[in-house]
Design brief:
The chain is an alpha/beta fold. It contains 14 helices and 22 strands. Helix 1 crosses helix 13. The longest helix is centred in the N-terminal third of the chain and has 15 residues. The chain is globular, with a radius of gyration of 23 Å.
């Protein structure tokens, strides 16, 4: 596949890195020569210095032969025009644009991004996607990671096995026998730096990170089974009143007004605006690195500090300070992967990588076959995929015990006619079933083939 990416910042770099690893033909455009130089020196991609919405620059990048354009610059208007030019002049089939301003995405303007108006096939709002992830992590504090599938009926939950985890040293096939009505399947384990799909004879060990696919209503029970009984936070301090912080605070303000939220925002004008928009949250103007401001926010009584500023350093340090001052738990936003290993050593409980969330949304449209949703885990070492079973799929009609699944693939749940099914040896996949499965990077091509329309079908 030939892909053009407009924007070589953190998001563009992450997308280029992933797509180039999968042997796609990737070209990157950016006005910054230094960013283009860095991306071409470190990745197997072509770089072009120029404006991503200019026809001559797109022509140089090979837009006339491109299968997809992904416009992820910092400016919505550039992203939109780039997609329009790619459609009008070069007839690029698939156009994806990063849209940050929520004004463009309001329901009453839903016809804006249509073929007759502005032909953008997919709009991605990283701030909203990340905000939703933060809210899910707040709702389920025992989870290390969480993603939704099948219209929110199925979830993937990453759960750490602690010393008191009651299911360690138990063969996985026994868990279904011990808890027959629990709609949850352990699909993979991250152990000692290695991620692998599990077999029914495998056992969980202390320190493992288990990837569990379960019915959404069974998330809390699943967390409890692994020994995680953490209570949802009642007092939250949010560092950063930008797009993500405001989205999180506004959603809590509307959905859970009893939850006490305080926001620390460094820009006075922004702080005043956020304060005017929210009914229950308290907004403080100041730096999240100022101990006095943290004390004014009653950080010592807070259940959770959520650091959502644009600075990784500020997020890491403010959360560490909050924990030292008595805050029970900390969650931070990290763009730079090099900071991720630091979090545990300094007592930060959870982090969210916004780049990974955005890349997952893009991969959903890169994957071949009837793929409905994709969520990348462990920096792309594997993906949780929701795919629709077609009549020609080799999975359809045969009991699970007779399926020869590729190494690195494990089916976690099936969504059929409004119900979630936990697969066992006698389960048979039917046409139009939505299958949620864990797939290591090496097995992704096999999964795509399983869910593609065969030419014999016609």
């Amino acid at each position: 596949m030939k892909v053009i990416i407009c924007g070589a910042g953190q998001v563009g770099y992450g997308i280029a890195e992933r797509l180039s690893q999968e042997d796609n033909d990737v070209s990157v455009i950016d006005t910054s020569a230094s960013l283009v130089g860095h991306i071409t020196e470190t990745l197997d991609v072509r770089g072009y210095v120029g404006h991503g919405a200019h026809p001559d620059v797109l022509a140089k990048a090979g837009a006339d032969q491109a299968d997809m354009i992904i416009a992820v610059t910092l400016y919505d208007e550039i992203n939109m025009v780039a997609c329009q030019v790619a459609h009008s002049l070069f007839n690029v089939p698939t156009k994806i644009a990063r849209i940050r301003s929520q004004s463009y995405l309001r329901p009453e303007y839903s016809d804006l991004f249509s073929r007759d108006n502005m032909p953008i096939d997919v709009t991605i709002s990283p701030e909203v996607e990340v905000g939703k992830m933060v809210l899910r992590r707040i709702s389920f504090p025992g989870a290390n990671d969480i993603a939704r599938f099948a219209d929110d009926h199925i979830a993937m939950v990453a759960i750490e096995c602690m010393e008191d985890c009651p299911v360690v040293n138990t063969p996985l096939h026994q868990l279904s026998q011990l808890f027959p009505d629990l709609m949850a399947t352990v699909t993979a384990i991250y152990r000692n730096g290695r991620l692998h799909a599990v077999h029914s004879t495998d056992q969980l060990l202390v320190g493992d990170l288990a990837y569990v696919i379960c019915q959404r209503d069974h998330i809390r029970r699943t967390l409890g089974l692994f020994g995680h009984e953490e209570q949802e936070a009642g007092r939250i301090v949010i560092a950063g009143g930008g797009n993500i912080g405001y989205f999180v605070a506004r959603t809590i303000d509307e959905m859970q007004p009893r939850m006490k939220v305080k926001i620390i925002e460094g820009d006075r004008e922004r702080a005043v605006w956020v304060s005017d928009q929210l009914r229950h949250a308290i907004v403080l103007h100041g730096s999240a690195l100022d101990q006095n401001i943290l004390m004014q926010a009653d950080i010592q009584d807070a259940d959770l500090m959520v650091a959502l500023t644009n600075s990784d350093q500020t997020n890491v340090l403010s959360a560490a300070m909050a924990k030292r001052l008595g805050c029970k738990s900390g969650m931070i936003l990290i763009n730079d992967p090099s900071y991720q290993d630091l979090t545990t050593s300094i007592g930060i409980d959870a982090y969210i990588n916004p780049r990974a969330v955005t890349i997952s949304r893009v991969l959903q449209h890169v994957r071949k076959g009837r793929i409905r949703s994709v969520y990348a885990v462990q920096n792309g070492a594997a993906e949780v995929i929701e795919a629709e079973a077609l009549e020609t799929s080799p999975l359809v009609g045969r009991p699970f015990r007779d399926l020869e699944l590729p190494e690195g693939m494990r089916i976690g749940a099936i969504y059929r006619d409004g119900a979630v099914l936990r697969p066992d040896g006698s389960t048979r996949i039917k046409t139009k079933d939505r299958v949620v499965l864990f797939v290591t990077a090496a097995a992704i091509r096999d999964v795509e083939q399983m869910f593609r329309v065969s030419i014999q079908y016609f």
